[in-house]
C-alpha cells in the first residue's frame, strides 16, 4: 500500500463513523520501490492530496522525510518539495501491517501490500 | 489493434481462484480501443476499475491509453484477484511508470468519499449473469452472480460511478442482453448519467454489449 492509496481511504462506511479519515497506520514491514519521477504528474496529483493526512502517515511510519508543516505557496516552482512528495506518495510500500479507524479503532489488515477494507454486514451503516 | 496484455504468468491454478479472461473481457478491450481518441483526449489522470480480476483491463488501459503517468485504482473483493492484478501490472512493466493502488473492498466503499468527482475513467466487467442472488459465498461465483436480472451489483456500481466521475469522465461497462438496456438506461438517468451502447458481440451462449456512461 502506497501512501497515496492511504490518502484516499476512509472508514466512514462503518456504522457510527462520521469522517473515518485519516486512518492510522501500524506498519510491520515497509519496502522501498522506485517509480519514475514525472514532474507534471506530481503537480497534477498534489491538489488532490490531503496534506495533513499525508504528514500523519509519514509520522506513523516513522519515515525520515522532511515535509514542511504547510504546503509551499508556489508548489510548481519548488522542485525539492515536488521530489519529496513523489518519494513519500509513491515510493514507500507498506507490505504488512494494519490500518486503524480513528473513530472506532477497527483494524483493517494489510498483507502483501494490499489493504483489506471488507466489512461484515453487521458493521455497515 | 493493440496486443492483449501478457498473462503468461498465470497458471490453471490461478484461474481456479480468479476469473479467466473470456469473450466479455476481450469485448471490453475492443470497446475501449474503439474509443481510443476520446479517451486520449480526456488525458485521464485517475482511472478506476471495479472488480479488476486478473488485471487485464487496467493493464490494457495503462499500456495503451495513458501516454503520461496516471493514477490507477483497482478494487476487488477477492484478495487473490487483488494480488493477481498487481502481478499482471508488473508482468507488463507498467509499475515504474504508472502508480497502481490496489484495495480489497466491496465496490468503492472506502474510496468513494475521497475520489468523489475525481475519476476520469471507470472500467467494469461485472457479474452480469441472472442468478437467484448476487450475495454468494464462493469467490468464483462472485465473478458472475448478478442476482435478479443480473443487475444487483451493476445497479450499485452505476450509483457509485455517478458520484465518482469527473465532469468529463467516462465509464465503460460490459453487460448481457438479459440485463436489459432499458433498465440500465433508467438506472443511469436516475443518477444523472447518459448511456450509449458502443459495441455488441455474440458468443455461443451470450449476447454481450458494452455501454458508455457519462454525466448529463
The end-to-end span of chain B amounts to 31 Å
| Percent helix of chain B | 25-40%
Order of helices and strands of chain B: HHEHEHEEHHEHEE
Low-confidence stretches of chain A: none
Overall average pLDDT of chain A: 95
Task: Name the helicity range of chain A.
Answer: 25-40%
Question: Which series of helices and strands of chain A comes N to C?
Answer: HEHHHEEE
Q: Describe the main β-sheet of chain B briefly.
A: 7 strands, mixed
CATH architectural designation of chain B: 3-Layer(aba) Sandwich
GO molecular function (chain A): protein heterodimerization activity
InterPro entries (chain A): Trm112 (IPR039127), Trm112-like (IPR005651)
Family (chain A): Belongs to the TRM112 family.
Protein name (chain A): Multifunctional methyltransferase subunit TRM112-like protein
Q: Could you characterize what this model shows?
A:
The complex is a heterodimer of chains A (125) and B (216). With 125 residues, chain A is an alpha+beta fold. Chain A has helices spanning 3-6, 39-45, 51-61, 79-90; strands at 24-32, 92-100, 107-111, 114-115. A four-stranded antiparallel β-sheet of chain A has the order 1-2-3-4. In chain A, strand 2 (92-100) and strand 3 (107-111) form a beta hairpin. The mean pLDDT of chain A is 95. Chain B has seven helices and seven strands, in the order ααβαβαββααβαββ. Chain B has helices spanning 23-34, 36-42, 56-64, 79-91, 139-142, 152-164, 181-190; strands at 46-50, 71-76, 99-104, 119-124, 165-176, 193-202, 207-215. In chain B, helix 1 runs parallel beside helix 3 (56-64). Chain B has one domain: Vaccinia Virus protein VP39 (Rossmann fold, 3-Layer(aba) Sandwich), CATH 3.40.50.150. Chain B has 216 residues and is of the alpha/beta class. In chain B, strand 6 (193-202) and strand 7 form a beta hairpin. The model of chain B has no long low-confidence stretch (mean pLDDT 97). At the A-B interface, helix 2 and strand 4 of A face helix 4 and strand 3 of B. Chain A: InterPro entries: Trm112, Trm112-like. Chain A: It comes from Rotaria socialis.
Amino acid at each position: 500500500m502506497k501512501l497515496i492509496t492511504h490518502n484516499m481511504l476512509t472508514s466512514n462506511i462503518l456504522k457510527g463513523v462520521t469522517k473515518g479519515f485519516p486512518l492510522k497506520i501500524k506498519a510491520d514491514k515497509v519496502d522501498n520501490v522506485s517509480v519514475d519521477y514525472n514532474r507534471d504528474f506530481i503537480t497534477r496529483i498534489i491538489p488532490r492530496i490531503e496534506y495533513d493526512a499525508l504528514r500523519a502517515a509519514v509520522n506513523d511510519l516513522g519515515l525520515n522525510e522532511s515535509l514542511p508543516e504547510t504546503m509551499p505557496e508556489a508548489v510548481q516552482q519548488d522542485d525539492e518539495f515536488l521530489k519529496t512528495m513523489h518519494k513519500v506518495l509513491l515510493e514507500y510500500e507498506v507490505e504488512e501491517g494494519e490500518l486503524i479507524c480513528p473513530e472506532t479503532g477497527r483494524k483493517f489488515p494489510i498483507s502483501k501490500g494490499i489493504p483489506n477494507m471488507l466489512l461484515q454486514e453487521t458493521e455497515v451503516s | 489493434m493493440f496486443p492483449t496484455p501478457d498473462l503468461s504468468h498465470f497458471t490453471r491454478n490461478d484461474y481456479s481462484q480468479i476469473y479467466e479472461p473470456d469473450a466479455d473481457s476481450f469485448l471490453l478491450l475492443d470497446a475501449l480501443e474503439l474509443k481510443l481518441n476520446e479517451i486520449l483526449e480526456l488525458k485521464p489522470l485517475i482511472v478506476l476499475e471495479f472488480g479488476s480480476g486478473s488485471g487485464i483491463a487496467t493493464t490494457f488501459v495503462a499500456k495503451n491509453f495513458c501516454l503520461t503517468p496516471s493514477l490507477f485504482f483497482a478494487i476487488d473483493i477477492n484478495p487473490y484477484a487483488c494480488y493477481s492484478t498487481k502481478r499482471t501490472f508488473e508482468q507488463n512493466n507498467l509499475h515504474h511508470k504508472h502508480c497502481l493502488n490496489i484495495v480489497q473492498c466491496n465496490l468503492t466503499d472506502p474510496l468513494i468519499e475521497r475520489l468523489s468527482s475525481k475519476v476520469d475513467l471507470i472500467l467494469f466487467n461485472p457479474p452480469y449473469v441472472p442468478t437467484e442472488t448476487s450475495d454468494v459465498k464462493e469467490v468464483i461465483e462472485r465473478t458472475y452472480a448478478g442476482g435478479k436480472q443480473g443487475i444487483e451489483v451493476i445497479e450499485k456500481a452505476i450509483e457509485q460511478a455517478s458520484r465518482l466521475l469527473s465532469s468529463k469522465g467516462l465509464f465503460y461497462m460490459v453487460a448481457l442482453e438479459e440485463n436489459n438496456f432499458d433498465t440500465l438506461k433508467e438506472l443511469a438517468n436516475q443518477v444523472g448519467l447518459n448511456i450509449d451502447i458502443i459495441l455488441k458481440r455474440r458468443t455461443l451462449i451470450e449476447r454481450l454489449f458494452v455501454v458508455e456512461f457519462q454525466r448529463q
